[in-house]
Specification:
66 residues, two-stranded antiparallel sheet, elongated, binds zinc ion
Length: 66
């Protein structure tokens, strides 16, 4: 198989919005535990939970005021 020198053999990819790990759309290369939530792809349910908790903290801080 031949690859172009400056072009990855990947048509599309995404990064986990929480931890930034690279996720491939190609099912063969996709991280097995990817989770789709909020129309985004996360590397694992752990990151979905983590980001949800961060949002909760932000909301709580906003409501509490400073
Ligand atoms: Zn992640």
């Amino acid at each position: 198989m031949k690859f172009a020198p400056n072009r990855l053999y990947v048509e599309s990819y995404a990064k986990c919005p929480n931890c930034g790990i690279l996720l491939y759309e190609n099912p063969a290369n996709e991280v097995p535990e990817t989770v789709r939530a909020n129309s985004r792809i996360y590397c694992s349910a752990w990151c979905v939970d983590w980001e949800a908790e961060r949002e909760e903290r932000r909301r709580g801080a906003a409501e509490a005021g400073t």
